[in-house]
Amino acid sequence: MSSPPVLSIKNLTLAFGPKTIQKNITFDVRQGSIFAVMGGSGCGKSTLLKSMIGLLRPTTGQYHVQNDDYWSGTDAQRTDINHRFGVLFQNGALWSSMTLGENIALPMQMFTSLKPPVIRRLVELKLGFVDMLHAIDLYPSEISGGMRKRAGLARALALDPDILFFDEPSAGLDPITSARLDDLILNLRDGLGATIVIVSHELSSLFHIADDGIFLDAASKTPIEHGAPAHLRDQSDNPTVHAFMHRENTQQEQKSS
Predict the structure, then answer these.
(1) pLDDT tens over the chain, length 257 residues
(2) Is 133 left (phi over 0), alpha (psi -120 to 50) or beta?
(3) What is the CB neighbour count within 10 angstroms for residue 230?
(4) What are the sequence ranges of the domains in the chain?
(5) What is the C-alpha separation between 223 and 24, in angstroms, rounded?
(6) Is 193 left (phi over 0), alpha (psi -120 to 50) or beta?
(7) Cα separation of 118 and 126, whole Å?
(8) CATH of 1-84+189-201+208-257 among 3.40.50.720, 3.40.50.10860, 1.25.10.10, 3.40.50.300
(9) Which 8-state DSSP code applies to residue 194?
(10) CA end-to-end span of the chain, whole Å?
(11) CA dihedral of 236, 46, 62, 25, whole degrees rounded to 10
(12) Measured between alpha carbons, how far is 150 from 134 in angstroms, rounded to an integer?
């Protein structure tokens, strides 16, 4: 028996003014899954993610977080739901004027009544999880891009969310650092039971970690496939999906020819 959906989207349309980005989006994200939002550049992947974390109200459709209708509630109700979320933005989105420890402590200071010594200990635990405890008193400008991603992940975990959203987590990382981040994401799912939604176009990462997903098409402005990335790679007969999933093979063939 499959687990119940943690997130459920039905007939969602996303637009900026008169410009439709995507329409007829319907999918469920199951408890404990790593769900990938896939597609080529400009198809609306990050726009969909923004809607799921409350930064863009859809034009039509429904979005449920467990049993809560996200967009029909009040601002206060949405804020409560957002406390279940952790978000890793593409650039890490750390405050440059704060140390890593201060960045991670900030959500706890804003949304809990924990005392400073308890917050400090929790910050150490979050940074320890991503192997960044040694950098607790450093500023974002003093660390590498990969380290900033891991620090951003530690901050996403600050309030112990059960749903995590990642926007292009591997962007700009070398293959070794990217693989290390993939392993951290798997640990979040397997060790903490987190449900994860990931926007990515990195094929090696998608095939390695994602067990479900949706493929958005820029031309039709609709989803055109649903399933695990590896399944779509091996089974999809849609030419757009096939080209996307096999583009690394095509690039290698072109280089060798």
Answers:
(1) 466 799 999 999 999 999 999 999 999 999 999 999 999 888 999 999 999 999 999 999 999 999 899 999 899 999 989 989 999 887 667 899 999 999 999 999 998 999 999 999 999 999 998 889 999 999 999 998 888 888 988 999 999 898 999 998 887 778 888 888 888 889 888 888 889 999 988 898 899 999 999 999 999 999 999 999 999 999 999 999 999 998 765 444 334 33
(2) alpha
(3) 16
(4) 1-84+189-201+208-257
(5) 7
(6) left
(7) 12
(8) 3.40.50.300
(9) -
(10) 49
(11) -20
(12) 13
Q: Which two tokens stand for residue 197?
A: 């939604």
**66's tokens:** 């467990």
Spatial contact of 87 and 152, defined as CB atoms under 8 Å apart? no
Q: Return the structure tokens found at 47.
A: 């726009």
Residue 11 corresponds to which amino acid? N
Cα dist. 102→21, 56, 99, 125 in Å?
Answer: 37, 28, 5, 14
Report how far residue 167's alpha carbon sits from residue 197's, in angstroms, rounded to the nearest whole number. 9
Task: Give CA–CA dist 67/30, Å, rounded.
Answer: 13
